[in-house]
Design brief:
single chain; mainly alpha
Length: 532
Amino acid sequence: MVSTPAYDPQLGVSEAVSAAPARHTGTIAAGCLAVCLAQIGLVLPAAINGAMQRALQTSGAELTWISDAFLVPAAILALTFGVVGDRYGRKKLVVGAALLAAVGYLVSATSATPAQLITGQAISGIGAAALFPASLAMITAITTTPAARARGLASWTAALSLGAFIAPLMSGGIVEHAPFQWAFGVTGVLAVIIAVAVWLLGTESSAPEGRSLDWPGQISIAVALLALLYGIIQGPSDGWGSAPVVASFVVFAAFITAFIVVENRSAAPMLRLSLFRIPAFAASAAMAVIGMLGFLGGAYDLSIRLGVIQHQTPFQAAIPVMIIQACTPLIWPLLVRLLHRIGPGPMLVTGFLAMAAGQLWLRSLPIHDTALLPMVGPLILNGVGFGLVVAALTAAAVNVVPRNLTGMAAATTSLVRDLGQTLGPAVVGAVALAMAASRLTGSLVHAGLTPQEHGIASAVLHAGGPLALHSADLGPLSAKLAPYTTDALAHGYNYGLILTAAACVTASVIAAVFVGFRPSGTAPAEAEGSAA
């Protein structure tokens, strides 16, 4: 069957897509495969943090950078790739991004140093920066009715969680029998397969009208966010008052101001700041940053607890992550109905509070208890909460903007969500490691160590931090230190869970106040004037 594009005066012929149901289904499947791949890369290190830390003898800051090297480009390049997809075609962008991610995984798969692994993660993260917004824009471009939009967004959300479910299962299972590098190699092969599938299944769409690459805006936002993350991650090891850390925060303030000025003056900005005058859109952005900081910060905290503090095997560490991520695909039919019938507000409030309760419940479990059963309750709360939040967050942001700006809205949603997810490990790691180091420094004085043992322990602590001392092979000294390092790390990362729960509660309050509880469905905005 040959279809003809139907002209939409708001979108132009370039945004028109095939009316054939099979092509629509194929495009949704292609978008879901793309976001699944991106999410696999995001979650991949979670189950193998312990294996990577022990194999490469990384410091706490290096371990954080391994996760955040993927997330940083995903956050700072999302807006630019939103423009690229709108101008040149989302399908082509997704295919190219998947292949670029495969190159990054090849670099990671051959890594023998933390620096090379971080580099590979950064390259894969650039690919993910395009996959997240472009996959969502592919789906929103062909779902123009409320029912179709609800199904499309729920499918995208389910694929997001499916990727996060697959990642720990795959990486944990592989690393049980092979070096951790193999997990990245297998993901690279999967990226190539998905690139081919998207090319065969997807329908091309674009919306180039009024969209152009905004290099001043991209450079200013990239420098600002990179400086912010550098300061947060390096603060505990370099010292919060050190010149590089202080300078990084100054650079952040200067360049985020420059970004606002540039975008306000640009004839074709990468981000229309006027979108933030729409209360629901501005609230969605705030919730995405704060709430995703809470979720991924809590997930990172959990991965450190399992893989590094408790020394569980990669597969054992993978099971709790899999339980969290299995919840969204299981409640997929419910997400469709909730999005269509009650709207995003109640889903956001309920989801954020469920995540906060799950994290506080997890904090109450003794650090020496490695059994899975006591963790099932908090894991399910986190998983159900995440599914509700991601589906509703996307709907709340995309559906309140004009249809010709859904690409920009999708990219902005990806940026703020990825920024929150990037800040999660950075903030939790900074707070937890600083508190653990302080507690451990005091504990070593009363640990009954000889002067020589104390000198060795202090040297390792100073060079690599609490995580390095906990995992270092120091012979009989390691057995002496184990109770103190475990106590210090549990103390620090338990405070991290308080922080992430507080972030989720804050996001729920924003949702209650600015999105509300009125049924709103998932109809896309019809005109720019109506949204503004």
